[in-house]
Amino acid sequence: MIMKASGKQIRLTVNWQRLIFSFRKLPALFLLWGLCEHVYSQNDSSEFLRHQFDVYRKQVLQEKLFVHTDKSVYLTGEILWFKIYEVDAFFHMPFAISAVAYVELLDKNDKPLLQAKLALNKGDGNGSFDLPVMLNSGNYKLRAYTNWMKNFSPDYFFEKTVMIINTQKITDSDQPPQTLQRHIDFFPEGGNLVNSLRSKVAFRVTDQYGKGMDCEGILMDNNGDSITSFRSLKFGIGNFSFTPVDRHTYKAVIRFAGGIQIEKELPQAYDKGFVMRLERKDSGHLEITVRQAKDSPANSSQLIYLFAHTRESIKWAGTKTVRNGKAVFLVDISKLGDGISQLTIFDDNRKPVCERLYFICPKKGLQLVVKKSDSIYDCRKKIKLNIFSEDRSGNPRQADLSLAVYRLDSLQSPDGVNIDNYLWLTSDLTGRIESPDYYFNNTEPETIEASDNLMLTHGWRRFRWEDVLQNRKPGFEFTPEYNGHSITGKITDSRSGLPGQHIDGFLSVPGNNTQFRNAKSDGRGRIKFEMKNFFGSSEIVVQTNPLHDSGYTIDIASPFADKYSSIPLPYFSMPENAPQSLLYASVNTQVQHLYADKKLQEFLMPAADTSAFYADPDDRYVLDNYTRFTTLEEIIREYVQGVNISKTAGKFSLVVSDKISQARLNGTPLVLIDGVPVFDIDKFINDYDPLKIYKLEVVKRKYFFGYKSFDGILAFTTYKGDLAGYELDRNAIVLNYEGLQLQRRFYSPEYENEEQLNNHLPDFRNLLYWNPEIKTNSQGNQEEEFYTSDLPGKYAMMVQGIDASGLTGCQLVLFEVRGKGKSK
């Protein structure tokens, strides 16, 4: 069935020149995109389709995010660690279009409980969530996206289910299983049923949580005759074939365990149209048979076209003539790309009439080998790892990796979501995909058939053919955050309630490392401040110029998406079969907080440029080094060089002289106090207490910043950077704002010597190691080391990642910890 991306598209003019300039830093990707750029004659429909498709995809760049979490089951009070990989949606190459990712933890009602903004650097970033003790036990949805991805359906966002258990709070499970609802959907291969043409029909049966349900059934017509029988193969998905007959309707009688029986009508069959059938041949080809209803017009000589692409990279196109209601295409499978390909049939009017997906399980791209010193370790012992990253031919590859080492028990099992099965499968399908790793583990006939059933029931496309064929240029509301987080809002005329069009806005972040930004609203009153290196929680001041725009206010918008996918969370019930594991895990978490809480709450300050926006000033005055005058007028007159203060019509004014030419600049300089612009200079000079000022920095030249220029800058800084009583305009907005998340330091104790080994502080870590920033060298190697804790048991090491060319890989390694560490 042809599935189309949903979601309302909002058109907005984008500065494409600036966007394209930014993307020039990605030459390899654009070289690939440019290989197919040709102008074809529209008389050749096959070539025309190629051309239109290629033109469209170049205008619609898309991203994917993958999130590696340290594990998938947590207790409240624990830390959820994660690493983000950003790639382009077509070639899976690390992407640098976005410098910010948004990560949220949602409950079953899609209510955000935890939110964070993560800095991305050359396609990756990492962060953490401290899981509050007030959370209820249940399944939660972890999702991640960028500002650019908000232009598209939320079905494109990364989503993963994590289980969180609160052992200190009684929580009801979800509805008991006996109240499960059963959803049944049918998907004719190619899109539609056509009378007199035999078709394969796939079906999917799920409960209200999206979990597949095993079933069997019988297809019956409206006369009560049995047509065929069927049963699900895997995860509630299966298929059957039959030939619909004119003036007949069909229903399926589906039976479940326990004697439950449900009837469901099949989709209507049409008198005219096309059906397609895909079969894999031993010759290494796909045979795509297209049949047309015999009473269709021009049946004997109609041209049809097959167009195949893999993640919008054109792979194959061909033309056939329908003769006697039939046409057959042979496609060399080796011509298609790894992962999911879309195969679309067009009629002679270039209208898409059939479409289906085909999956090629990718061969391991990035080979990850983890060599450890042993398979069994004592408690509190060092584990040394050598991690190797290679391509399929054994050549070393430099790779960006993340590693989690965690304990396995009746609650926590190896995570089935990894970078391979997400990028190659889940991210290109709609709906919930159960056990995606199943489709990668073997090449048995049952697995191949199950993967094809999955393709028939989870159709997806990241575009609309109508847009491609009509050459509709895309319009986007959200721009990529290429330079850092953007704080957006809307300016409103408080008198009329209308949007404030083309009004100057100013945003300041007071503090020791002040920030100042200026912007102008568009014709709809929207305004955007681009913030660079804005980390942590800070108070921001947002305002217009009260001397010119006193009647305007600015409302700051949330940067988080307000649309959600329709994928339900899995059924949750408290793990009653693991009370001992829950008890141990609860005690261990509490002990860790008791003895290592300070270590768990250490954050790293980013290595970012913290200088003011004007960089180095021309002059800097630390006022304590000079005579402390009682007025600002005296300070400026007595020892601030190159700044002239005068009084005209009873009001003070300032003029800055250029440092080089000594000529006076024409306009009024920008005056700041702790990064907040001073608009009424006369009032500031008259009323503000200079004893509260620590330093003054002066820029003595014309300075261009944002869309404005300033004739010099005078930046005053108070001792605490807190404005020290400076009175803001009544329309100024002051609020606490979370910038980019500070990176938490992962705590792992060391047992290098006898004293450390024999100390009596308990070490009940079930997460032994987390490193989201492993970079293998030119020989494809990196060494890691960490220590086991006091918890014996089975442990898993999951390492996964990507190289610069888009090769992905993951590797799971198991080992055991037992006994008590002994000093030697």
What this model shows, in words?
The protein is mainly β and 824 residues long. Among the domains are: 146 residues, Macroglobulin (MG2) domain (Immunoglobulin-like), CATH 2.60.40.1930; 101 residues, Ferric Hydroxamate Uptake Protein, Chain A, domain 1 (Beta Complex). The chain is 12% helix and 39% strand. It contains eleven helices and 48 strands. The strands form 14 sheets. Strands 2-8-7-4-5 form a five-stranded mixed β-sheet. Strands 26-48-47-28-45 form a five-stranded mixed β-sheet, with no helix packed on it. A hairpin with a 5-residue loop joins β30 and β31. The longest helix has 22 residues. The radius of gyration is 32 Å and the shape is globular. The protein starts with 15 loop residues before the first helix and ends in a 7-residue tail after the last strand. The N terminus is likely disordered.
Helix content: 10-25%
The CATH class name of the domain at 63-171 and 565-601 reads Mainly Beta
The percentage of residues in β strands lies in: 35-45%
Measured between the Cα atoms of the first and last residue, the distance is 67 Å
Biggest sheet architecture: 5 strands, mixed
Count every helix, treating DSSP H or I runs of 4 or more residues as helices: 11
**Unreliable stretches, pLDDT < 50, 5 or more residues?**
1-43
Structural class: mainly beta
CATH topology of the domain at 63-171 and 565-601: Immunoglobulin-like
Strand order of the largest sheet: 2-8-7-4-5
